[in-house]
């Protein structure tokens, strides 16, 4: 047995001469004194302590809702409503204290930032002195995120779509210590769109270098929802950084599998780069596993691997990391880069001051491509775990488990280098040929210290390299990979509806477009064609019933569900799938037909797939009607039979309290919180403080209301009415309207009227109502007071976002006719006049009035100018309108670029040039090239040679032509992944 190694033996391999100066790095605080002793004893700890980080502050979001329905974002819909949209970032950094939660053990140091979506900001390997996750020493957002600001570095957890809609919003946190010494930092939020619940726990264990992520995704809504989960890991890169995938990976695919290439040697042009031609000139230039060889922004995702690991390795530093997760739930393995060229370097500079370029090594769960969404049933919870750990100087891993990784050299013999994630006394390293051990050594191993074993040249036979612990348990084994080299399939654009032969394929094509949130192709033409051929098709009628229900067209949803049921039950009263009964119950309940809805839910409960959702809906309805015993019996039929659902626990607790079984209710909630420590409604029922996050409070109130606890709901709504207005949005007016609806149900008419009056007087900033509960409350308000201009304005916003645009326009016009002069309302009505009513004069008049109301609002002025462009106003007229407000124009990047174009067109290229060389710009992802095009036009107009733009423009020339987003015929390419225009102005025929 060899002498026990120490960490100091390998610290020298971690030195990287190209790393930022030490003075530029964030200072990590020491653990509190009492926790240092735990770390010294091998334990894991966590504590909360703010960190001061140089920060470029994101601007305040726009007060105007953004209806970006046709915006192509990451290959799927870029809809952002109801999240307020942020359009600018500060040019200068300031020190800012950020909430930070620190995790540490003997091997690893982590920092989690709760105010930025609960991301891991720092992942540091104490054994090698290496940041295995990219450490960004400054918070410098660029306009990359779905709602605007996004930062690079660390690990971002993308859910329910990419990038995480709440990536720049806070999460609630708690620190949990397990009996086994583990420490977990739990982060929790409700997604801004469907209000599903997500909890991710960042976990360290004693004596382990593994970073564990425990995830609980809960669909707390009454509808089936789609989602994806990609953990987005950033790794600092340079010429010697290599991304490694399992050896059975022969091909990688672009977004939506629209293109393929071989891996690691690209065997065809990919993203416009002819890699084989480059390799013919420079050996190895086709190796796309090295950042240095990729000159353009590029994604690639593996296809068809049967392995569980991948990662990145820094050959200069002699360190890297491994990701491991079971392939059965986590098949997604991806690399993204801005590209090693001036274009990519310009983006790097937008996102950091001195930390250089990075790649993203992303791990997808329930998905292997983007966009690629899976389903969550109502009430369903998915639980999974992902693991990362740093590796020392072993090279790129050829096999890995949560216990160990191994790199195998096969030139001139066999050499296996192992790294472990926990101390292993008397571990056995061995190389085996055809079952015979040909080399072996027993050694004490520690994380951070590699151990190698060599064997001589092997002529024939199958060779394996393995590591076992002292009890003979296998830690890791590498065996040669035999993989099918057959080229995988590539996606194709679906035919037009009339060209599709079967009703089934029409239904499935529409389902795909709906499930994958396709930004430019609607499922409706396919489903409508299916019903033209077969009006009674069950699947299509249910798909449309579901769509109608989500849009608040309850009666139409009932009619479609009944058509489906007529065929389903024609010969079989007990159909195999009871979704139709469940959908019918939902719509009937919203229509106030409560007894009929309970009958439908009861029948839906016959089907195990829909029993959990239907049973909960039935129990809620019975509880709300005071049928306590019946409600408890409905819950009894579910307990122990269907999956865990905290909403069901909350309803039972409310019922038990109501019938005098308070101690039982308290124990039930207490036990449930050990599983879901941050569930908002359960914490409220337990008397635990819930943060004053208005959206979360609304969700709790609705849970209480739906279970029949109306007084409790009113109490929580009162808190929501005074909660801070934040960039997450403003629910104060809706909280008042919801309270009025509850008070109406209680027969307290005067109090309800007072709440509606408070709603009208509430701050409307960022008040973008969303969802069916808000819709129902606003409709109730208008039934009570038809002249409520505020309710008309708000319901118009909601309906426009839900696809009911003709009705939205009518509500906005009614609010204006009632005398409202709110700039947001006038602008919204102007959009609808152009897009929906096709009334150009009305659109122009609305914008002119909005400008009068808010003359210093740069977005209103910008949108007015964009409308002028579409209405054919001359460049001279547009410029004349903008010159007097040049200072206001220059506050927006997009407006400034448009102004420069107008100056050039009207012969004032000198002024245009001065603006471009003196004003800093912040590009937005998908909008690259706008500033450079203006720069080139300005140079040409000034008689100057074309040169590279100044750094202040924020971008550089692209070396290669990216895949087109819009075809020559003007149609957006089916596989487009980004599109420059926000497409607020887009002629439409009306409602869905």
Spans of at least 5 consecutive residues whose pLDDT stays below 50 are: 1-23
Shape: globular
Strand order of the largest sheet: 14-15-16-17-29-25-24-20
Distance between the termini: 74 Å
Over all CA atoms, what is the radius of gyration? 30 Å
Sheet with the most strands, sense and barrel status: 8 strands, antiparallel
Task: Determine the mean pLDDT.
Answer: 94
Number of helices: 29
CATH topology of the domain at 44-56 and 93-391: Beta-galactosidase, Chain A, domain 5
What structural category arises from helix and sheet content? alpha+beta
The CATH C-level name of the domain at 44-56 and 93-391 is Mainly Beta
Task: Name the beta content range.
Answer: 15-25%
Q: What would you say this structure looks like, in words?
A:
The protein starts with 32 loop residues before the first helix and ends in a 51-residue tail after the last helix. Helix 5 (524-533) packs across helix 6 (538-550), helix 16 (710-722) packs antiparallel against helix 17 (732-745) and helix 17 (732-745) crosses helix 19. The protein contains 29 helices and 37 strands. It is an alpha+beta fold. Among the domains are: 44-56 and 93-391, Beta-galactosidase, Chain A, domain 5; 399-478, Immunoglobulins (Immunoglobulin-like), CATH 2.60.40.10; 692-763, Serine Threonine Protein Phosphatase 5, Tetratricopeptide repeat, CATH 1.25.40; 855-953. Helices cover 34% and strands 20% of the residues. Mean pLDDT is 94; it is low at 1-23. It has an eight-stranded antiparallel beta sheet, with no helix packed on it. The protein has a seven-stranded antiparallel beta sheet with strand order 13-19-27-26-23-21-22, with no helix packed on it. It has a five-stranded antiparallel beta sheet with strand order 1-6-7-8-9, covered by helices on one side. Strand 33 (424-433) and strand 34 form a beta hairpin. InterPro entries: DUF5107, GH-type_carb-bd, TPR-like_helical_dom_sf. This is DUF5107 domain-containing protein. It holds the Pfam family DUF5107. Residues 79-391 form the DUF5107 domain.
